[in-house]
Write a structure and sequence with these properties.
Helix content is about 15%, strand content about 35%. By secondary structure, it is mainly beta. The longest helix is centred in the middle third of the chain and has 5 residues.
């Protein structure tokens, strides 16, 4: 179980049916959008509209009203 991140996400984007995250130490994390019920039905424009929240430990899609924690993603919880 991941309790907290040692590093913050500094960039998030959508590419090739995946949400991609870059941490401040250069690590990339990716997960397929089909793992999330809301994201799987979204347009590429909506998927690319990602805000970093909570000092880079959370993601928010304002057009979809969807939030995910990075620690949850690392634990395999995609919403």
């Amino acid at each position: 179980m991941v309790n907290e991140l040692a590093n913050q996400v500094v960039k998030a984007w959508y590419q090739d049916e995946k949400i991609c995250l870059l941490t401040d130490d250069g690590v990339e994390i990716r997960f397929p959008v089909y793992k999330n019920k809301i994201l799987s039905k979204a347009t590429p424009e909506q998927l690319n509209d990602i805000e970093l929240i909570c000092n880079g430990t959370g993601l928010h899609w304002p057009q979809l009203d969807e939030d995910l924690s990075v620690s949850g993603i690392l634990e395999g919880n995609f919403g």
